[in-house]
Protein backbone atom coordinates (compact mmCIF):
# COMPACT_ATOMS: atom_id res chain seq x y z
CA UNK A 1 0.00 0.00 0.00
CA UNK A 2 1.56 3.26 -1.08
CA UNK A 3 0.52 6.56 0.52
CA UNK A 4 -2.92 7.26 1.90
CA UNK A 5 -6.13 5.57 0.92
CA UNK A 6 -9.81 5.99 1.60
CA UNK A 7 -13.05 4.16 1.03
CA UNK A 8 -16.75 4.89 1.33
CA UNK A 9 -18.98 2.31 3.01
CA UNK A 10 -22.66 1.78 3.85
CA UNK A 11 -24.10 2.08 7.35
CA UNK A 12 -27.59 2.38 8.81
CA UNK A 13 -27.23 6.18 8.86
CA UNK A 14 -25.78 6.59 5.36
CA UNK A 15 -22.51 6.31 3.45
CA UNK A 16 -19.51 6.95 5.71
CA UNK A 17 -15.89 7.39 4.76
CA UNK A 18 -12.60 6.33 6.29
CA UNK A 19 -9.03 7.34 5.40
CA UNK A 20 -5.77 5.65 6.34
CA UNK A 21 -2.04 5.78 5.86
CA UNK A 22 0.87 3.44 6.49
CA UNK A 23 0.71 4.00 10.27
CA UNK A 24 -3.06 3.41 10.64
CA UNK A 25 -6.38 5.19 10.33
CA UNK A 26 -6.10 8.96 9.93
CA UNK A 27 -9.79 9.86 9.88
CA UNK A 28 -13.43 8.82 9.81
CA UNK A 29 -16.15 10.81 8.11
CA UNK A 30 -19.80 10.38 9.02
CA UNK A 31 -22.28 10.87 6.18
CA UNK A 32 -23.11 14.27 4.83
CA UNK A 33 -26.54 14.91 3.30
CA UNK A 34 -25.29 13.43 0.01
CA UNK A 35 -22.47 11.00 -0.74
CA UNK A 36 -20.75 13.50 -3.04
CA UNK A 37 -20.45 15.87 -0.07
CA UNK A 38 -18.92 13.11 2.06
CA UNK A 39 -16.39 12.43 -0.70
CA UNK A 40 -15.71 16.16 -1.10
CA UNK A 41 -14.98 16.54 2.63
CA UNK A 42 -12.63 13.53 2.59
CA UNK A 43 -10.83 14.96 -0.43
CA UNK A 44 -10.57 18.36 1.26
CA UNK A 45 -9.06 16.87 4.44
CA UNK A 46 -6.92 14.18 2.74
CA UNK A 47 -6.19 15.43 -0.80
CA UNK A 48 -3.39 12.88 -1.27
CA UNK A 49 -5.62 9.87 -0.46
CA UNK A 50 -6.80 7.63 -3.28
CA UNK A 51 -9.87 5.40 -3.21
CA UNK A 52 -8.80 1.80 -2.73
CA UNK A 53 -9.61 -1.45 -1.02
CA UNK A 54 -9.05 -1.13 2.76
CA UNK A 55 -6.33 -3.15 4.50
CA UNK A 56 -7.28 -5.56 7.34
CA UNK A 57 -6.90 -2.97 10.15
CA UNK A 58 -9.30 -0.64 8.35
CA UNK A 59 -11.72 -3.52 7.58
CA UNK A 60 -11.91 -4.20 11.35
CA UNK A 61 -12.70 -0.52 11.97
CA UNK A 62 -15.37 -0.47 9.24
CA UNK A 63 -17.03 -3.58 10.64
CA UNK A 64 -17.02 -1.99 14.11
CA UNK A 65 -18.48 1.30 12.85
CA UNK A 66 -21.22 -0.51 10.89
CA UNK A 67 -22.05 -2.65 13.93
CA UNK A 68 -22.14 0.30 16.32
CA UNK A 69 -24.33 2.33 13.96
CA UNK A 70 -26.70 -0.64 13.78
CA UNK A 71 -27.00 -0.49 17.57
CA UNK A 72 -24.64 -3.36 18.32
CA UNK A 73 -21.51 -3.65 20.42
CA UNK A 74 -18.26 -2.75 18.69
CA UNK A 75 -14.69 -3.40 19.80
CA UNK A 76 -12.05 -1.04 18.41
CA UNK A 77 -9.20 -2.28 20.62
CA UNK A 78 -7.41 -3.89 17.63
CA UNK A 79 -7.75 -0.79 15.44
CA UNK A 80 -4.59 1.24 14.89
CA UNK A 81 -4.98 5.01 14.75
CA UNK A 82 -2.31 7.20 13.21
CA UNK A 83 -1.97 10.01 15.74
CA UNK A 84 1.07 11.53 14.04
CA UNK A 85 0.61 15.27 14.24
CA UNK A 86 -2.09 15.04 16.93
CA UNK A 87 -1.22 17.22 19.93
CA UNK A 88 -0.29 15.21 23.06
CA UNK A 89 -3.13 16.77 25.08
CA UNK A 90 -5.64 15.76 22.40
CA UNK A 91 -4.27 12.20 22.37
CA UNK A 92 -4.86 11.98 26.13
CA UNK A 93 -8.41 13.28 25.68
CA UNK A 94 -9.03 10.69 22.96
CA UNK A 95 -7.69 7.86 25.14
CA UNK A 96 -10.05 8.81 27.98
CA UNK A 97 -12.94 9.18 25.56
CA UNK A 98 -12.31 5.72 24.10
CA UNK A 99 -12.73 4.28 27.61
CA UNK A 100 -16.31 5.58 27.97
CA UNK A 101 -18.60 2.54 27.72
CA UNK A 102 -21.34 2.35 25.11
CA UNK A 103 -24.58 3.86 26.40
CA UNK A 104 -22.82 6.14 28.90
CA UNK A 105 -21.80 9.77 28.70
CA UNK A 106 -19.37 12.13 30.39
CA UNK A 107 -19.07 15.91 30.41
CA UNK A 108 -16.16 17.97 29.17
CA UNK A 109 -15.53 18.90 32.82
CA UNK A 110 -15.33 15.24 33.86
CA UNK A 111 -12.76 14.51 31.14
CA UNK A 112 -10.75 17.59 32.18
CA UNK A 113 -10.84 16.43 35.83
CA UNK A 114 -9.64 12.94 34.82
CA UNK A 115 -6.73 14.62 33.05
CA UNK A 116 -5.91 16.50 36.25
CA UNK A 117 -6.63 19.77 34.48
CA UNK A 118 -9.96 21.00 35.85
CA UNK A 119 -9.48 24.39 34.21
CA UNK A 120 -9.10 22.81 30.78
CA UNK A 121 -12.80 22.26 29.98
CA UNK A 122 -12.60 24.48 26.89
CA UNK A 123 -9.43 22.69 25.74
CA UNK A 124 -11.16 19.31 26.10
CA UNK A 125 -14.09 20.61 24.05
CA UNK A 126 -11.69 21.90 21.38
CA UNK A 127 -9.81 18.59 21.28
CA UNK A 128 -13.04 16.67 20.76
CA UNK A 129 -14.22 19.16 18.14
CA UNK A 130 -11.04 18.28 16.21
CA UNK A 131 -11.45 14.52 16.67
CA UNK A 132 -10.63 12.96 13.30
CA UNK A 133 -11.57 9.46 14.53
CA UNK A 134 -15.34 9.88 15.15
CA UNK A 135 -17.09 6.71 16.32
CA UNK A 136 -13.74 4.96 16.99
CA UNK A 137 -13.02 7.76 19.48
CA UNK A 138 -16.64 8.28 20.57
CA UNK A 139 -16.66 12.05 21.05
CA UNK A 140 -20.47 11.88 20.89
CA UNK A 141 -20.34 10.40 24.42
CA UNK A 142 -18.89 13.63 25.83
CA UNK A 143 -21.45 16.36 26.43
CA UNK A 144 -21.65 19.91 27.69
CA UNK A 145 -22.67 20.48 31.30
CA UNK A 146 -26.43 20.02 31.39
CA UNK A 147 -26.25 16.97 29.07
CA UNK A 148 -26.78 18.98 25.88
CA UNK A 149 -26.25 16.76 22.85
CA UNK A 150 -26.65 19.06 19.88
CA UNK A 151 -23.15 19.51 18.52
CA UNK A 152 -20.94 17.21 16.49
CA UNK A 153 -17.29 17.30 15.58
CA UNK A 154 -15.98 18.64 12.31
CA UNK A 155 -16.11 15.14 10.79
CA UNK A 156 -19.61 14.55 12.07
CA UNK A 157 -21.39 15.24 8.83
CA UNK A 158 -25.09 15.85 9.28
CA UNK A 159 -25.44 13.38 12.17
CA UNK A 160 -25.87 14.79 15.68
CA UNK A 161 -24.60 13.48 19.00
CA UNK A 162 -28.24 12.90 19.98
CA UNK A 163 -28.72 10.54 17.01
CA UNK A 164 -25.59 8.55 17.83
CA UNK A 165 -26.44 8.33 21.53
CA UNK A 166 -29.97 7.23 20.68
CA UNK A 167 -28.60 4.44 18.47
CA UNK A 168 -26.39 3.34 21.37
CA UNK A 169 -29.30 3.42 23.81
CA UNK A 170 -27.60 6.00 26.04
CA UNK A 171 -29.02 6.35 29.52
CA UNK A 172 -29.78 9.62 31.22
CA UNK A 173 -31.48 12.85 30.30
CA UNK A 174 -29.89 13.90 27.04
CA UNK A 175 -31.52 17.12 25.90
CA UNK A 176 -31.35 19.78 23.21
CA UNK A 177 -30.92 23.44 23.78
CA UNK A 178 -33.98 25.56 23.28
CA UNK A 179 -33.89 28.86 21.44
CA UNK A 180 -33.89 30.49 24.87
CA UNK A 181 -30.76 28.53 25.88
CA UNK A 182 -28.97 29.52 22.69
CA UNK A 183 -29.86 33.22 22.78
CA UNK A 184 -29.51 33.87 26.52
CA UNK A 185 -25.68 33.83 26.57
CA UNK A 186 -25.51 36.39 23.73
CA UNK A 187 -28.41 38.62 24.75
CA UNK A 188 -27.37 42.12 25.83
CA UNK A 189 -27.85 42.84 29.54
CA UNK A 190 -31.10 44.56 30.44
CA UNK A 191 -30.77 47.99 31.97
CA UNK A 192 -32.25 48.28 35.44
CA UNK A 193 -34.26 51.31 36.49
UniProtKB/TrEMBL annotation:
Q: Read off the Pfam families from this record.
A: DNA_binding_1 (PF01035)
Gene Ontology biological-process annotations: DNA repair; methylation
Q: Does the keyword DNA repair apply?
A: yes
Q: Which reactions are catalysed by this chain?
A: a 4-O-methyl-thymidine in DNA + L-cysteinyl-[protein] = a thymidine in DNA + S-methyl-L-cysteinyl-[protein]; a 6-O-methyl-2'-deoxyguanosine in DNA + L-cysteinyl-[protein] = S-methyl-L-cysteinyl-[protein] + a 2'-deoxyguanosine in DNA
**Could you tell me the keywords of this UniProt record?**
DNA damage, DNA repair, Methyltransferase, Transferase
Q: Which residues form the Methylated-DNA-[protein]-cysteine S-methyltransferase DNA binding domain?
A: 88-169
CDD domains attached here? ATase
User: Superkingdom of the source?
Assistant: Bacteria
- Please give the Gene Ontology molecular function terms for this protein: methylated-DNA-[protein]-cysteine S-methyltransferase activity
Q: Does the keyword rRNA-binding apply?
A: no
Give the protein's recorded name: Methylated-DNA--[protein]-cysteine S-methyltransferase
Organism encoding this protein: Bradyrhizobium sediminis
